[in-house]
Automatic annotation (TrEMBL):
This is N-acetyltransferase ECO1. Signal peptide: none annotated. It is found in: Nucleus. Keywords: Acyltransferase, Cell cycle, Metal-binding, Nucleus, Transferase, Zinc, Zinc-finger. One of its GO terms (molecular function) is zinc ion binding. Residues 1-67 are annotated as: Disordered. The keyword RNA-binding does not apply. Residues 12-30 have a biased composition (Low complexity). GO terms for biological process: mitotic sister chromatid cohesion. Residues 71-108 form the N-acetyltransferase ESCO zinc-finger domain. It comes from the Eukaryota. Residues 1-11 have a biased composition (Basic residues). InterPro entries: AcTrfase_ESCO_Znf_dom, ESCO_Acetyltransf_dom.
Length: 333
């Protein structure tokens, strides 16, 4: 009788781990999971494909350049040259250098330049003289008049050079030559600054020059004869007639001179007052100071023909007539 041997299982509750067989004939274990109802392939959403746009560096640079392109149009009827109605300077609109020059020039023409401590410290070294003090203007403000040589150097010379450049641009005049500056004096009218008690404003400038001769201004009757002679023929009026010999200075204002050169000691090549300070008597006070002190110990009288202007502007002509009462002469600069 055979004896029965019972085999006791110690892992009856565990599932047997199936390991892949190394035998070639063994098939790989199935990894397919059981799908529930409704989970078929026909119900799965389509897989989105990533779209890549591959461009070369040259194409990218070309596109970036095309993005900043702008369409330009030529406006033939519109001029880029502008003329400021305040300072009268013509400049090119859109040009940084021209616009910067215009802003600085227009500010100096309207409000003038400043005279501060730096100029005062140097004043004694270069011979700056105070001609008059506490000079009252029509608006009640008080100022002073100083004088120095026009060919001075240093900081004051640089200040005067900028001031003369502004005056020349405003009057459309050429720069004064070195010979003229050597024989000239600068007269400045200063008033206290409203923003800084240690600084003053330059509200007027006169350049007085030593000259030898000048021409007298033709009277209205002589000017009228000049106009009539222009309408007459050469046979009606001989060239020796006095009306033929008048020198035309400015046809707009009707300014003519007799050609005879008469001895005249003082000439005024430049006269300027900023627009914000005009009609206050600044120009006449500067001219009177120059006539009284230009030649030491010898005051000059414009009524007697001791003072002459260069070719004046319309405003300069009015000042010349009012201040000199018809006695101021004209000379060639």
């Amino acid at each position: 009788m055979q004896s029965m041997t019972k085999v006791k299982r110690t892992y009856s509750s565990r599932s047997r781990l199936s390991l892949p067989s190394s035998s070639p004939s063994s098939s790989p274990p199935s990894t397919t999971k059981r799908k529930h109802f409704g989970e078929g392939a026909e119900n799965e959403p389509p897989t989105k494909k990533r779209i890549t746009n591959k461009t070369s560096p040259s194409e990218r640079s070309t596109k970036s350049k095309q993005r900043v392109l702008r369409q330009l149009h030529f406006s033939i009827e519109t001029s880029v040259l502008r003329t400021c109605t305040i300072c009268g300077l013509s400049y090119t609109r859109g040009a940084p250098d021209d616009e910067s020059l215009h802003r600085a020039h227009c500010s100096r023409v309207q409000r003038g330049m400043e005279w501060g401590r730096e100029e005062e410290r140097e004043a004694g070294k270069v011979g700056v003289e105070e001609i008059q003090s506490a000079v009252k203007l029509k608006n009640g403000k008080k100022g002073r008049i100083i004088c120095f040589k026009a060919n001075v150097g240093g900081r004051i010379g640089s200040k005067l050079a900028i001031l003369l450049e502004t005056i020349n641009l405003a009057l459309s005049s050429p720069p004064l030559s070195t010979d003229i500056l050597q024989s000239s004096k600068a007269y400045l009218y200063l008033i206290p600054s409203l923003t800084n008690v240690h600084r003053e404003k330059i509200v007027g400038c006169v350049i007085a020059q030593r000259i030898s001769t000048a021409m007298t201004v033709a009277t209205p009757s002589e000017t009228l004869l000049k106009g009539d002679s222009n309408q007459a023929t050469d046979r009606d009026l001989p060239p020796s007639s006095p009306t033929h010999r008048l020198v035309t200075v400015d046809t707009t204002s009707g300014l003519f001179c007799n050609p005879e050169a008469l001895p005249t000691p003082l000439g005024i090549p430049r006269l300027f007052v900023p627009s914000a300070h005009r009609r206050q008597g600044i120009a006449s006070r500067l001219l009177s100071a120059a006539a009284a002190t230009f030649i030491h110990g010898c005051p000059l009288d414009p009524v007697n023909g001791d003072v002459a202007f260069t070719q004046p502007t319309e405003g300069g002509h009015a000042v010349m007539q009012n201040w000199g009462r018809g006695g101021v002469r004209i000379y060639e600069e």
